[in-house]
Amino acid sequence: MSTTHEEIAVAAPRGIPALNLRELIDTNLYMPFPFQSNPHASEAAVGVENWLRTWGLTDDPAVAAMISYTRPAELAAYNSPAVDSGLLQIMANQIAYQFIFDDQAEDIGLQRPGRLLPMLSESVRILRDGQPPDTALGAALADLQRQVQERCTPAQAARWAWNSREYVHGLLHEAVAQSHSAPLGSGLCRSIRSLIAGIEPFHPLCEAAQPYELAPEVLRHPVVRRLGRLSVDAAVWIADLFSAVKEQRAGGVINLALDYQRAHQCSLPEAVRLAIRRINSTIGEYEELYDEIRPELSPSGVGYVDGMGGWIPGCYFWSRTVPRYADTMAASAVP
């Protein structure tokens, strides 16, 4: 049974058939992490609104509406319950920016992948070379990079920029896959999903939340790197469970549940069950590896891994109540 808190409806007990996909997910998903929220969440929400308004990103009513039903500050607060208000604000701003960037890239890419190139090239020029922006979206990214550089060490900021560029490149992969007529293989689907997860850029911010910068050998440790991969996959795949209905209606293909549905030619509820098994296994491996290496880590190392792992319950508790994925409650759990 998944752990919930008093503001989130308790999942249906095992043995009672789930009525909708959200109940199906709640009943079957292994969620060993409790609900937590950062006490500065409301402050961060106001800060996001002001920051987006400053750069003109919510001048479009459709974008403003998307932000209101996506709740980026809430996602940041659930993912990072222990960080200070300043770092939480950077995270919330970045989540809001990435939702806007991702939605715009998806809209353009569905029409023609090549039309994405100016948008993606501008981001790479800003992140890699510090070039001045050409658009309002680019100006917001440049300001976000400034915030990161002011808060992080040079090495952390460099890792943030590198991870952010990988995310940008991944969106082109997604656009090509979306426009391809041939069926997408499962391995390729999961590979693209890992590129566009958009979570790795937050890992240097998890490090910046610690009292001491981590040594390179800790960051490069195979188990620590594996924990990072497992936490990202589990978190983004959990979001895929709740977004599957939305993505299916929009014609999306880069989604774990939809991938299982294509591969097994089954109903969406059955595909969700298969995806949950994969996620449960991933979370189980994360727990086992963390138990093994935790005694070897410094307090800063523990805090860093906890920061990465916080995205697993964060994405779960955010996804199950955010209006962006409200269709999950209306979708039947009966195959």
UniProtKB/TrEMBL annotation:
Taxonomic classification: Bacteria, Bacillati, Actinomycetota, Actinomycetes, Kitasatosporales
Organism: Streptomyces lanatus
Transmembrane segments: none
GO MF terms, alphabetically ordered: lyase activity
Gene3D superfamilies noted in UniProt: Farnesyl Diphosphate Synthase (1.10.600.10)
Presence of keyword Cell division: no
Residues of the signal peptide: none
SUPFAM superfamilies per UniProt: Terpenoid synthases
Protein name as annotated: (-)-alpha-amorphene synthase
Record keywords, A-Z: Lyase
Parts forming coiled coils: none
Enzyme class: lyase
Record EC number: 4.2.3.162
Pfam families cross-referenced by the UniProt entry: Terpene_syn_C_2
